[in-house]
Automatic annotation (TrEMBL):
Protein name per its UniProtKB record: Integrin beta
Subcellular location: Cell membrane
Segments traversing the membrane: 698-724
Annotated keywords: Calcium, Cell adhesion, Cell membrane, Disulfide bond, EGF-like domain, Glycoprotein, Integrin, Magnesium, Membrane, Metal-binding, Repeat, Signal, Transmembrane, Transmembrane helix
Domain of life: Eukaryota
Length: 767
């Protein structure tokens, strides 16, 4: 449903559940109303019928004055009028200033906030300049253009102040050369005017004097560092939180102009220098220097954005073209910030600041601080140049001074609150605030008649918002049941089935018996525990019980000639008849002219069971018994009456599958089974000839075993002999090799005596 401004309005619907009192009703939905009229509900009807939308209750006959439906209330505590211009007193730019809301959970409440930017509102501008060596030309121009800055501010307001600060980077490696001489003079050797390296220095607090400003800026000299990104976030954080040092006024538009030609370091970059302590967002200025520069990490963008918003400071990033895109992305994360492009020597800084200020002040953004739990706030800007930046803020652009605009604020509380909570709404960058205090309206003001023995409650109870609250010892819808000496809890226990809900939540427990309620269609629940109703049976063709039966306690009771869970079928078994005239071969039931098979048998007529165990195996013990016995009576216990008839034949006559199994004596037996009508009923044919294997030849086995042992023994002996022979050959070869390597020398043994003695005959002449 469309409402004002083309927004959707909620349709009045009461979604209720487990309603037992007026409070339960009004907290179940924003449009739920309670009828406190006596006798509005009939005997046995649940009191939840009193809870509905106002229109439905009136349609049922409830009088308007008997309907309880709390509404939102609003009380404006402070509403100072908007100022026409900025004078000696502090101007009021937003109204109202304080408002109290008492809200019903889920019911949105709307109110308007008006804003008008005062003409000549004070401006505090803090010029924060990068003094790294690359900004040398820019510093010279700022010194020259100091007077022009004051002229530009005086066009905006007659009450302007300006301050000055400078930054480079942390004086530790890898950001700055830590050589002692380089720390004192980080510039080139040719540079005569160069100040020592520093992180952030506050130079001049807010002053209305252009001469003081020009003098202090003229005293500044360039410095230097190593890497390209600078410590600009460090400087901005200190400028934001050190309000006393900077000289921010309580009632002024606060601006920080950051002039740089480089990017910025942020949280985490300090690890490169071994700085692990996170930024604590506190002021650490000693002698106009940031003393914790080398001890704390850089702040994150989120930390800086929070402190700028908290202190109502709007940053203007005056940067060179090479880092323009970087700072444009930064402005997306910092509310009420703007970026402008500096010329290479900052010659256009005055025009840039003037343009940026106009952009900031002409765009009004209203939003809130941290909301209490279960509170939602949405905004709708009521102005010509509305910008849609989501429901959590209202934005108007091109707002001129002295032009009044409005914002429609919608506050919704989702749950009841035990105590008052508050939050503030304010325009970003402006001090004015609206404090919203919220409480919830979750109680019923029924103005009940006094007395504890009202006649409507059988003179044994009192009236609470139209329903009876029974005195001790009495229970029931109208307190007409005297508990007496019985314990009330034991009486109520008899109304619970299996310790479940009392009367299944469909009735009231009256004197130990369930008094069932009526259904939404007008019929009554029934059963001992009100567990039955006649409206939730199976449907067919969108008809309850197909229109061929009656619903009774969730089950269809079919008319004669119909069957099925929803009475959707005529009684017939033509589709279930088999060739032998049976119904589903006795292995299923015929429902809706179709077989519903049992035990794994499959349709259409339950003839086969593909997943069942093979009958050749399940009937083997019975067939084996019948094959060996002469009478069927001997196998009654084994067969269990599953074989109707059997024959011992020389040749099979049945056309079924042949079974080939071993009987109890180990002989192969052949038989065929024919399944009859029924679950486990067969005829059998058994071949008279069995295939019994011949017994083993003991003599042959023994002779063979002995022969095998002998052969194995001979083979082992031959193997041992072969191994010994191989070893001898190896030793002999080794001996031969050693013999060849030996060397013998010819010499006489001094101990040797020749056994032969030669004697010469002295008389022999040889003739």
């Amino acid at each position: 449903m469309l409402g004002k401004h083309g927004l959707c309005q909620q349709e009045e619907v009461c979604s209720k559940s487990a309603i037992t009192s007026c409070k339960d009703c009004i907290t179940s939905g924003p449009f739920c109303s309670w009828c406190k009229e006596l006798n509005f509900t009939k005997g046995g009807e649940q009191e939840a019928a009193r809870c509905e939308t106002r229109a439905k209750l009136m349609a049922r006959g409830c009088k308007r004055e008997e309907i309880i439906s709390p509404q939102n209330t609003e009380e404006i505590k402070q509403q100072d009028p908007l100022s026409k211009s900025s004078g000696s007193t502090e101007p009021v730019q937003m109204t109202p200033q304080k408002i109290d809301l008492k809200l019903r959970p889920g019911l949105p409440h709307k109110f308007k906030v008006s804003f008008k930017r005062a003409e000549g509102y004070p401006v505090d501008l803090y010029y924060l300049m990068d003094l790294s060596y690359s900004m040398k030309d820019d510093l010279a121009n700022v010194k020259r253009l100091g007077g022009n800055l004051f002229d530009a501010l005086n066009k905006i307001t007659k009450d302007a102040k300006i301050g000055f600060g400078a930054f480079v980077d942390k004086t530790v490696l890898p950001y700055t050369n830590t050589n002692e001489e380089k720390l004192k003079k980080p510039c080139d050797e040719s540079e005569t005017q160069c100040q020592a390296a520093f992180g952030y220095r506050h130079v001049l607090s807010m002053t209305p004097s252009r001469d003081v400003f020009r003098q202090k800026v003229a005293e500044q000299y360039i410095s230097g560092n190593l890497d390209s990104p600078e410590g600009s976030l460090d400087a901005m954080m200190q400028a934001a939180v050190c309000g006393d040092k900077i000289g921010w006024r309580n009632s002024s538009t606060r601006l920080i102009v950051l002039a740089t030609d480089a990017g910025f370091h942020m949280a985490g970059d300090g690890k490169l220098a071994g700085i692990l302590e996170p930024n604590d967002e506190l002021c650490h200025m000693t002698g106009n220097l940031y003393e914790k520069s080398n001890d704390m990490d850089y702040p994150s963008v989120g930390q800086l954005a929070m402190q700028l918003e908290k202190n109502n400071i709007q940053p203007i990033f005056a940067v060179t073209e090479n880092v323009n895109n970087v700072y444009k992305e930064l402005t997306k994360m910092i509310p009420k910030s703007v970026v402008g492009v500096l010329s290479s020597d900052s010659n256009n800084v005055v025009q840039l600041i003037e343009s940026a200020y106009n952009n900031l002040t002409s765009k009004v953004t209203v939003t809130h601080d941290i909301l209490p739990d279960n509170v939602r706030v949405e905004y709708l800007a009521l102005c010509e140049h509305r910008i849609n930046e989501g429901p959590n803020k209202g934005v108007c652009d091109q707002v001129q001074a002295e032009k009044e605009i409005s914002f429609e604020v919608t506050v919704t509380v989702d749950k009841c609150m035990e105590e008052e909570k508050s939050f503030t709404i304010s325009p970003l960058g402006i001090k004015d605030k609206l404090t919203v205090t919220i409480s919830t309206n979750c109680e019923c003001q029924c103005n009940d008649p006094e007395g504890s023995n009202h006649i409507h409650c059988n003179s044994t109870g009192s009236i609470t918002c139209g329903i009876c609250k029974c005195n001790q010892g009495f229970v029931g819808q109208f307190c007409n049941c005297a508990v007496g000496t019985k314990d009330e809890s034991s009486l109520r226990a008899t109304c619970r089935r299996q310790n479940g809900t009392e009367c299944e939540g469909r009735g009231d427990c009256v004197c130990g018996a369930c008094q069932c309620h009526t259904t939404e269609q007008g019929t009554s629940y029934h059963g001992k525990y009100c567990e039955c109703d006649d409206e939730h049976c199976e449907k067919y063709d969108n008809k309850l019980c197909a229109g061929n039966g009656k619903c009774n306690c969730g089950q269809c009771r079919c008319d004669p000639g119909y069957q099925g869970s929803a009475c959707q079928c005529k009684v017939s078994d033509e589709g279930c008849r088999t060739l032998d005239g049976s119904i589903c071969y006795g292995r299923g039931n015929c429902e809706c002219n179709q077989c519903k098979c049992k035990g794994g048998y499959q349709g259409p007529q339950c003839k086969d069971c593909s997943g069942c165990p093979s009958a050749c195996l399940t009937k083997l013990s019975c067939i084996s018994c019948l094959s060996l016995s002469k009478s069927k009576e001997n196998c009654i216990n084994v067969c269990n009456n599953t074989i109707s008839e059997y024959k011992k034949v020389e040749k099979f006559n049945l056309q079924s599958k042949e079974c080939h199994q071993k009987d109890s004596e180990g002989c192969w037996i052949k038989f065929k089974l024919e399944q009859l009508t029924g679950m486990d009923n067969y005829n059998a044919e058994i071949l008279t000839k069995r295939e019994c294997p011949e017994p083993p030849n003991v003599i042959a086995i023994i002779a063979g075993s002995l022969a095998a042992v002998a052969v194995i023994g001979i083979l082992l002996l031959m193997l041992v002999k072969l191994l010994i022979h191989m070893k001898d050959l190896k030793e002999f070869k080794k001996f031969e090799n050693e013999k060849k390597k030996s060397k013998w020398a010819n010499a006489d043994n001094p101990l040797f005596q020749n056994p032969t003695t030669t004697v010469a005959n002295p008389l022999f002449t040889g003739e």
